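Fold this complex.
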Amino acid sequence: MRIMAQMAMVMNLDKCIGCHTCSVTCKQVWTNRTGMEYVWFNNVESRPGQGYPRRYEDQEKWQGGWKRTRNGGLKLKAGGRFKKLLTIFSNPTLPSLEDYYEPWTYDYRTLTDAPAGDDVPVAQPVSQITGRPMAVTRGANWDDALGGPVNQDPMLEKLNEQVKLEYEEAFLFYLPRLCNHCLNPSCVASCPSGAMYKRAEDGIVLVDQDQCRGWRMCVTGCPYKKVYFNHSTGKAEKCTFCYPRIEVGLPTVCSETCVGRLRYLGLLLYDADRVTAAASVADEQDLYQAQLDVILDPNDDVIAAAALNAGIPQDWLDAARKSPVYQLVKEYQVALPLHPEYRTLPMVWYIPPLSPMVNALAQTGHDGEAQGNLFGAIGSLRIPVEYLASLFSAGDPAPVTWSLQTLAAMRAYMSKKNLGEAADSDPAMDRLYRLLALAKYEERYVIPAAHTEQAHQLEEAVCSVAGYEGGEAAFGSDSGRPVPVSIESFHLTKERQTRDQP
Amino acid sequence: MNLLLWGVLPYLAIGLLVGGAIWRYRYDKFGWTTRSSQLYESRLLRIGSPLFHFGLLLVVGGHIMGLVIPESWTAKAGISEHGYHLTAVVLGGIAGVATLAGITILIFRRRTVRSVFAATTKNDKLMYVVLVLALVAGLATTVLANGSGDGYNYRATVAPWFRSLFILQPRIADMAAVPFAFKLHTLIGMALFAIWPFTRLIHAFAAPVQYLFRPYLVYRSRDDKTGLRPARPGWDR
Ligand code: SF4
Ligand code: SF4
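Structure:
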């Protein structure tokens, strides 16, 4: 047994209002740079919908993640090591800018500079790639709120025709996505340079900017398409789980700014030696359970002793015991992984939304909020459950049903309790309710700080991603020594954001 | 003059190549990348890039065969001079044409696709000029000097000179006597090596063969690396 700690996230989808605050704040912090205009480390998709990049879930096309070989081993879906090296000169499964979108800005200057005339001046869209005027035909969130070709949702396509039609018409929910900081990251495995790594302390998956050589295999490797290629610096970049914040005990920017307060952060302890075995179980639908089994119980004395032995500090162990993520994922089992069938063991978990059921009930003329109705409906309404299962449990309806029924039961219990009808009080339900409905900042984010004896290393944080930029440095943009985050980079950023040329 | 061209310049080129690469590694790890433009355009790249790169690998192999391995060795292995030449011309010709065709597609793409052109630096342009000249001159020596007539045996002159460079006794006279095409190709080649570490060509030195041997998953401890800032002496660390 090799115990490691993992910083993980849970999102309660029922509460997501699709406001995109998380995406925007993340972008402001991490990807508002030349070369990263098209990149959203955090994006919010409407489901059903195509997602971003469009149809990224179509792994027959994009070849992301792992596949199980016939003799039970694991292999990258896009091909083994030799194939990777042979296709290094032109990666056949790299999404192009069209699959994301061509970023643009507006020619605002004409608004003020245009000579007086009969026509009102218009700010034309200008491509941030070529600097030319362009027609805007798509964006990172083009089909927001069912606004796009919903039937091109790759998961919806797999359901049968009838279900599909009904689903398109009736259901909508939002799915915020970021890098899952997987336990078995296929992006790391795809990197020929060995520049990508999983941090041993907290499991955050990072790209070493000094070692990345721009082979862009990681982009293909990640089935969630959450590694991006900075087309200006020629390096891969990805969500960093805001590690400089996490290290000092602060939540990620997306969590901190989430309007719905639906994100939870906390530690999970897991057995690193069992990861590969868990990721290679034969039946896709067993992957969820296998993933749960890798996660260890921090309240177990044997585990706790072993964890301390493995060098996990006492305060981290304490944090793991209080982790809201552990409770939602393992104790209540209401939070599920996104696409376990990719075999990467993702560590961002989702509590599936109950509201599509409530709406569905309401449309059949029943009172969707009534407890009895709701509970029965989860079992009988195949449509939403099937679709949710295709996202969160490789198509197995059982985990989704369990999660939804738990949520429905909690609703029923609480409404009875509020009406004074409850027979006995149920502490487990009370605790779940508190966690989902009332939890305060400190309960939602249980983040042990990195260790003070290491603090002098932390303040070294140099932002290779926020240094000099834009200009043509000697060997292409941003080459040379990294520059500390400073007033200079502030001015450069300002300069870039206010200039007329891309 | 001959001393300068064939006795001094080669060492300058080698010095720049090696010293430049070391300096770049220390000064500019971040800029050490392919700067791939595949994100912008991949239809042309899909044909041009493999054609160019695989062709180039063959060309490099050919140079090693021709320059490093002495004629006496291949003779011992039972390969006649004529047979060797025939193979060299045919294989070298194919590789050369493939490489040249590849880079033509790539340059056409670079010039015509706006987004790719916008991402092209002055440094790139200079590099392309030298690279194409080296390729054209190289193909010319292969085809003109060897394909027509009874061929020129560069393995008796150019190759010994090349090897003599590494034992620090350059055989300048050998090189002074070779046909002009070979001289030109050699000179451009030296220029290419001299600018190599200072252009995007540097990515070739990062060829990730180690990928074949490492475990799939990489774990790294935060302690392994104390940030990107160069180490400071003494108490601050
Ligand atoms: S979500 Fe993608 S980028 Fe993130 S760790 Fe998993 S495989 Fe890597
Ligand atoms: S900020 Fe929160 S509520 Fe708004 S879209 Fe993001 S996850 Fe949803």
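The mean pLDDT of chain A is 88.
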